[in-house]
Structures are given as C-alpha cells and as structure tokens.
Amino acid sequence: MSTLQSLGSERPHRAEAVVDLAAIRHNVATLRARAENGAQLMTIVKADGYGHGMIPVARAAREAGADWIGAAVLEEALALRDAGDTGPIFCWLTTPGEPLEDAIAAGIDLSAAAPWEIDELVAGVTDRPARVHLKIDSGLSRGGAVPEEWPALIRAALRAQQAGRIEIKGIWSHLASSDEPKSPANEAQLATFTEAIEVAESFGVDAEFKHLANSGATLALPETHFNLVRPGVATYGLSPFGHALPSAELGLRPAMTLKARYAMVKRVPAGAGVSYGLTWTAPRPSTLGLIPLGYGDGLPRHASNGAPIQSGGERRTIVGRICMDQCVVNLEDDQAAAGDEVVLFGPGADGEPTVDDWADAAGTINYEIVTRLGSRIPRRYIDSGR
Ligand SMILES: Cc1ncc(COP(=O)(O)O)c(C=O)c1O
C-alpha cells in the first residue's frame, strides 16, 4: 500500500503520478450535492484510493464533507484509524479468522452476510458492541445473504443484539449494472433490496442506515440513494459510464496525471523492429522515445501498440510491446531529448490523453488503469485550490 518515497525533493523524477487534492474535494462536494434527500456520503478509498493514495484522499474527502469513509479490507480500515481518522468507517470484506477484534475495538463498522459471520463478530467483542451492517444479495451474486437465507441472518443478528454484543447499524447491498442506468437489473435489485428492508423491519430490526448506490447510481439513479450513498470511482473524477458520459459532463474533475521523463530518445532507420517480438516496424526513419514505465508499474500490457501519450504538445502512440519497466513511443520527426517530459494521461484539458483513452487502448475500464498503478511510481500531491 505504500508508494516509494521521492528520491530527494529537487531532483527530477523518472516518473510520477500527480494527484490534485482540490479535484478530489471538488468531486466529493459534487457527489454530496447529488445525494437525494440529504443522504449521507461514504467516499470509497479501497485499493489505495483507486491508486491515488488512500490516506491523502480520505483526508481530502473528509474536508469536503464525506460523512463516511469506505474500505474493502480490514488492513485498509485500520490504517485509516492509525492515520488519525476518527469518523465513521465502513469495511465489508473479511474472511474467517481475521482479527475482527481490532476493528471492533477501533469502532469500525463491519458487514455480515451469514449467521457464522455474526458468531465471529460476537467472538471478537471485548468492551464495546460490534457495529454491523447486514448485507443482502439483491442480485449481484457476489457477497450478501440470498433472500432465502436473509431471515436466518436477521434472527442471528437480533439474538446477538439482544445479548448486547452487536448493534445493527445498517442494511446494505451492491448493484451490478449501475453503469447502465436503464438496465432492468437496477429496478430488480432495488425491489429485492426494498423487500429485504421490509422483512428485516417486520422482524424488529431498526437499522439507521440503508445503502445501495455506488458512483453510477449516485449520479443516475436517485431512487437508490436511501440515506447513504457509496461512490468510489467518481471521487477520482472518473466517469462510471466511460466515454458514454464523460466526467466533464458530470461536473467531475479527473484528479490524476501520470508523467514520466524519457530515458532515451533516438533515431532508427525504416525497417527497425521495436520491443519484444518486434511487433511494430518503423515504416520510415523515425524518432523513438523510451518511457521508463512498464507493466511492472501497472501499465497494461494489453495497451501495447496503441496507447496514446502527449509529448511536446503532440499526441503520439506507444509502439511495440509494453515491457516490464519500459515502453517505446513513436515520436515520428519530433524534436525531443532524454529527460523531456511525457504525459501518459491526465484530465484531458490540455489535449493530453485521458484515463478513458488508456482504458480503450487496453480493452478495460478506467477503474483498472488508475488502480493498478504500482508502488514504484511516487504519488505527488498538489492542491490547485490553495
Ligand atoms: C461495496 C462497494 N461499494 C461501493 C463501491 C464503489 O463503486 P464505484 O467505484 O463504482 O462507485 C464499490 C466498488 O466496487 C464496492 O465494492
């Protein structure tokens, strides 16, 4: 989860991911304003803040009004507490035998989807009851109790609550298709979720929070907001709808710019093959730039022979295969030198490629492009608003 420290403040870097915390704050405030009927906002910072850096993002989100911070796994949630976050934190992905007692003692809200998970929570309680959100599988078929097993989960949770070991704080679920707001799957999941709440209430559950909406639903499905929304990717200024509805049209600002400096620039003759397998051949004498980033840094190898970059104000293309530590760009006849800056992606405002352009080149989604960036790339935080 850590990123490499900068190699001395003034020295030029091989590469860096610049994260604008003002953009994070802007996006959090925008999402909060989109939450219907005063619903609270949980900013999702799992997977090192989708590659942007979990702790700085969580701090910026709190400053911009995030009521909750959401983390997938226990290590993340505990790291947030260790970093001094004292507000509500929700963490939903645990496996049997994990040290739940640490999270319970730290007042972290946890999820349960089966009676055995309630038992594990009860066993982890020391001085304060565990704060629990019961998860219904409303149709994603990932985590959550299927509707047939929902009553057994509720009964187990109520027994533990009556014994003073847990507090049922929430009922929640997760959507499969909010990136396609018109999909009938959304309506079906909403109906299943609503029914699960009714069943729980008929058993006597009085949960303060009900939550279902991720970014797509926060932006496009207000009927799913209940009283808490959980956007992730939109926090980072990326659209959950990809090119179909770009972030600018949603009022979001992409927060990350990925830059590097050429390790080498050289001229090759027509016919020169490039990179492993020689999958690209220079059709004419060409200038090539060597970017010191590769799949070891999280660039997708699938984006070989096609990913765009910006160099000297021009759009150019990565040619040949992306290697572990490096890749090659066809600079055509550009004037460039070792040490010059190359922008792989950014907000797009200055003509640079966007995360979505990289996602297209790799046949994936914007989420994956930023999240997989590795710890070899230092993150540098700027604050364009201050
Ligand atoms: C349970 C849960 N809630 C919320 C989110 C945020 O989703 P998104 O990034 O699509 O907004 C995720 C991420 O996948 C998730 O797993």
From TrEMBL:
GO MF: alanine racemase activity; pyridoxal phosphate binding
Pathway: Amino-acid biosynthesis; D-alanine biosynthesis; D-alanine from L-alanine: step 1/1
Keyword line: Isomerase, Pyridoxal phosphate
Enzyme class: isomerase
Known EC number: 5.1.1.1
Function: Catalyzes the interconversion of L-alanine and D-alanine. May also act on other amino acids.
Protein name: Alanine racemase
